[in-house]
C-alpha cells in the first residue's frame, strides 16, 4: 500500500482486533472439536465425513468464484481430479518417501494451477462474457476425463489408479488432516472475503466495467482467482488421493462439478460457511441414504434444490441470516472508516500544450456513421461542454475518449501518448476519469467500499483487513459533504436515491485525482441545490486545480454558468467550437436544436 499506508495500517485498532479475532477464535474451536471427533464417531461416519470435509474445501473455492466474483464454474472438479491424479501417479511411480510425498504435494498444486491459468485466460479475455466463462468451465471436466480415459496405464483409464503409496496415517489421522485443511482454507477465504481486497471480487461481480474505469483490471483479478483456486482444488485432490487410496475419472468429471454447484447453491452462495456446512450435510446424508434409497435420494435432492432456489434464493444460510437479523448489532456507520483529506496534488499549470487531442476521429457501426472527422484539443484548466441534440454522437465520443479498444479511425492522445489499443484501466492510469450517463456504481457494496475501490489503483487494498480511514482528495470530500454522502458511508449503495448514486459516482471519479475528467450528464437526477454544488466543484477542479474537463450536459443554463468553451456536435460532426457567448448566441445552434433528432 502506498502514500498513506502508515495511517491505514494504524487506524482504528479496536475495529481491526474485533474483525480478525472473531473468525480465528471460531476456527480454533472448530478445529479442536473436529480433532476429538474421531474418538466418538464410528469408522463409517469417520470415513464419510473425511471425504465430505475434503469436498467442503472445493465448495469454498466454488463459492469464492461464483458467490463472490460472479463466475459460475463447473471446472473445480477437473482441477481437483488433476491434483489427485498427479499425486497418485507420482507416488505410484516413485513411492511414498518424504521427498516424493513433498514432490507429490507440489505437483498436485502446481499442475492444476497451471491449467487454471490457461482456463482463466481463455475464460476472461477482453470482451468475454460470463456465459462464455461458464461454457469453458463446462468443457474442461469433459476434456480432462477424456484424457484420463486415453492415458492407458499412466492413468488407469476407466478403472482409475489404486495401490500407490500414501501418507502413513490411520483413519483418524486422515479425518484430522482433512479437518485441518478445511478449517484453514475456510478461515483464509473468510478473512480474504471480508477484507478490502475481497470486496473487489464483489465489485467485479456487480459492475466489472466500472472497475475498469477506476483503474482496476477485472480480467486480471478473475484470472488470478481462477489460478489460485485451481491450486487449492489440487491441494484437496492430494488429500483425497491419500485418504481414499483410489482416484477415478469421476473425481474430475462434469457430474461432480455440477454437484458442487448444487451444494453451494443449497448451502447459500456468497456466505462461505453455508456451502461448507451444506456440502458436509448433503454428502453425509447421501452416503447414508443412497444405499437404501438410491433413486429416491436423488429425487429428494433435486426437489430440495428446486424448492430452495424458488423459496430461498440465498440458500439455507438465508434462514440463519433472518434469525440473526433480530439480534442487536453495531450500526453501519459505527463500522465505516473515518474520512480524512489527502494532501493535494501539484496544480496543473495552464498551458497552450493540449492535454487531450483528437485528430480526424471517425466511428461507424456497420454502414452507420456515428462520428465523422472530429478534431478537438483540450488544455489543462479548460471546462469544455459538449452539446448537441439527441443522436448527435456525444456519448459515443466519450466512449472513444475513454476506451482505446473501440475500433475507430483517426487518433486520440493523452498528453502526447496515443490511447489506441489501451483498455479503460490503462487509460485511467494516464489520468483520465469517466462518469457515465447512468450512475455506474456497485450496488452490493457500501458507500465507503465504493470509494476505497476508487483509490485502490493508487493506494492498494489490504488482503486481510479493512481500512480504518478513507483518504480522499478534498474535491471528492466536497462532493460528499455537499450531497450528504459523508453521513452515509456505511450505507449499502442499493439503498441510495438516484441523485445520491450520481453524486457517489462523481465522488469516485474525482477520487482518482485525474488530469482529465469526462462527465456524461453529471447533474441528472439532482436537485437545483445539488446542481449548484456540482457546478462549484467542477469550477474548482478546472480553475483552481488545473484539471481538464469534458462535460456532456443538456441543461444549457448550467453549461453557460460553468463552461470555458462549448463544442457543438450535430449528426456526428463538430459544427461549432467557441466561447460560451459565441455558441449560445449562434443562429446555427438555434437551428440545430429546433430541428434536432432523437437517439
Automatic annotation (TrEMBL):
At the top level of its lineage, which domain of life is listed?
Answer: Bacteria
SUPFAM superfamilies, alphabetically?
Answer: P-loop containing nucleoside triphosphate hydrolases (SSF52540)
**Mind telling me which Pfam families this protein's record contains?**
ABC_tran, BPD_transp_2
Gene3D superfamilies xrefs: P-loop containing nucleotide triphosphate hydrolases (3.40.50.300)
Q: Where in the cell is it found?
A: Cell membrane
Q: Which GO terms describe its cellular component?
A: plasma membrane
Q: Name one GO molecular function term.
A: branched-chain amino acid transmembrane transporter activity
Q: Which UniProt keywords apply?
A: ATP-binding, Cell membrane, Membrane, Nucleotide-binding, Transmembrane, Transmembrane helix, Transport
Q: What is its main location?
A: membrane
* SMART domains the record matches: AAA
The transmembrane residues are 21-41, 53-72, 77-94, 100-122, 129-149, 174-193, 223-248, 260-282, 294-316
The answer, when asked if Transport is one of the entry's keywords, is yes
Which parts of the sequence belong to the ABC transporter domain?
A: 356-596
Topology in the lipid bilayer is annotated as: Multi-pass membrane protein
Q: Which family does it belong to?
A: Belongs to the ABC transporter superfamily.
Name the chain's protein.
Answer: ABC transporter ATP-binding protein
Organism of derivation: Methylobacterium brachythecii
Amino acid at each position: 500500500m502506498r502514500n498513506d499506508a502508515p495511517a491505514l495500517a494504524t487506524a482504528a485498532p479496536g475495529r481491526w482486533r474485533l474483525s480478525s479475532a472473531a473468525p480465528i477464535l471460531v476456527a480454533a474451536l472448530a478445529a479442536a472439536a473436529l480433532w476429538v471427533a474421531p474418538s466418538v464417531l464410528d469408522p463409517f461416519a469417520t470415513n464419510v465425513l473425511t471425504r465430505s470435509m475434503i469436498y467442503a474445501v472445493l465448495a469454498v473455492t466454488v463459492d469464492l468464484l461464483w458467490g463472490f466474483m460472479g463466475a459460475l464454474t463447473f471446472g473445480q472438479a477437473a482441477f481437483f481430479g488433476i491434483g489427485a491424479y498427479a499425486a497418485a501417479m507420482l507416488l505410484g511411480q516413485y513411492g511414498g518417501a518424504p521427498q516424493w510425498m513433498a514432490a507429490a504435494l507440489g505437483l498436485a498444486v502446481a499442475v492444476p494451477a497451471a491449467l487454471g491459468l490457461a482456463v482463466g485466460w481463455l475464460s476472461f479475455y477482453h470482451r468475454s462474457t460470463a456465459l462464455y466463462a461458464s461454457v469453458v468451465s463446462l468443457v474442461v471436466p469433459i476434456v480432462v476425463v477424456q484424457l484420463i480415459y486415453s492415458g492407458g496405464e499412466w492413468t488407469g483409464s476407466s478403472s482409475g489408479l489404486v495401490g500407490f503409496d500414501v501418507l502413513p496415517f490411520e483413519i483418524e489421522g486422515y479425518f484430522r488432516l482433512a479437518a485441518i485443511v478445511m478449517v484453514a482454507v475456510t478461515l483464509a477465504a473468510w478473512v480474504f472475503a471480508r477484507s478490502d481486497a475481497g470486496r473487489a471480487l464483489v465489485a467485479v461481480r456487480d459492475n466489472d466495467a466500472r472497475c475498469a474505469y477506476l483503474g482496476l483490471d477485472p480480467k486480471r483479478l478473475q484470472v488470478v482467482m481462477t489460478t489460485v483456486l485451481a491450486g487449492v482444488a489440487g491441494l484437496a485432490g492430494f488429500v483425497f488421493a491419500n485418504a481414499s487410496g483410489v482416484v477415478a475419472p469421476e473425481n474430475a468429471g462434469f457430474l461432480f462439478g455440477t454437484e458442487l454447484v448444487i451444494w453451494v447453491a443449497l448451502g447459500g452462495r456468497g456466505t462461505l460457511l453455508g456451502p461448507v456446512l451444506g456440502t458436509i450435510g448433503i454428502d453425509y446424508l447421501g452416503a447414508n441414504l443412497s444405499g437404501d434409497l438410491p433413486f429416491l435420494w436423488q429425487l429428494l435432492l433435486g426437489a430440495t434444490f428446486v424448492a430452495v432456489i424458488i423459496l430461498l434464493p440465498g440458500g439455507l444460510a438465508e434462514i440463519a441470516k433472518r434469525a440473526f437479523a433480530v439480534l442487536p448489532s453495531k450500526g453501519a456507520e459505527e463500522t465505516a472508516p473515518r474520512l480524512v483529506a489527502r494532501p493535494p496534488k501539484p496544480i496543473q499549470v495552464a498551458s497552450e500544450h493540449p492535454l487531450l487531442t483528437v485528430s480526424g476521429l471517425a466511428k461507424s457501426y456497420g454502414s452507420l456513421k456515428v462520428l465523422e472527422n472530429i478534431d478537438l484539443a483540450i488544455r489543462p484548466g479548460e471546462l469544455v461542454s459538449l452539446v448537441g441534440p439527441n443522436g448527435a454522437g456525444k456519448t459515443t465520443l466519450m466512449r472513444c475518449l475513454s476506451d482505446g479498444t473501440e475500433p475507430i479511425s483517426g487518433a486520440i492522445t493523452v498528453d502526447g501518448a496515443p490511447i489506441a489499443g489501451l483498455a479503460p484501466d490503462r487509460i485511467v492510469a494516464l489520468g483520465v476519469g469517466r462518469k457515465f450517463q447512468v450512475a455506474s456504481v456497485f450496488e452490493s457494496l457500501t458507500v465507503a467500499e465504493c470509494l476505497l475501490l476508487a483509490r485502490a489503483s493508487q493506494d492498494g487494498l489490504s488482503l486481510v483487513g479493512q481500512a480504518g480511514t478513507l483518504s480522499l482528495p478534498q474535491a471528492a470530500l466536497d462532493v460528499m459533504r455537499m450531497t450528504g454522502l459523508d453521513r452515509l458511508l456505511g450505507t449499502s449503495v442499493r439503498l441510495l436515491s438516484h441523485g445520491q448514486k450520481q453524486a457517489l459516482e462523481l465522488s469516485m471519479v474525482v477520487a482518482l485525482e485525474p488530469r482529465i475528467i469526462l462527465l456524461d450528464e453529471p447533474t441528472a437526477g439532482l436537485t437545483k441545490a445539488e446542481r449548484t454544488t456540482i457546478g462549484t466543484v467542477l469550477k474548482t477542479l478546472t480553475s483552481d486545480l488545473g484539471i481538464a474537463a469534458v462535460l456532456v450536459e443538456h441543461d444549457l443554463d448550467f453549461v453557460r454558468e460553468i463552461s470555458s468553451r462549448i463544442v457543438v456536435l450535430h449528426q456526428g460532426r463538430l459544427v461549432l467550437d467557441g466561447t460560451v457567448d459565441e455558441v449560445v448566441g449562434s443562429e446555427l445552434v438555434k437551428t440545430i436544436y429546433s430541428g434536432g433528432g432523437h437517439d
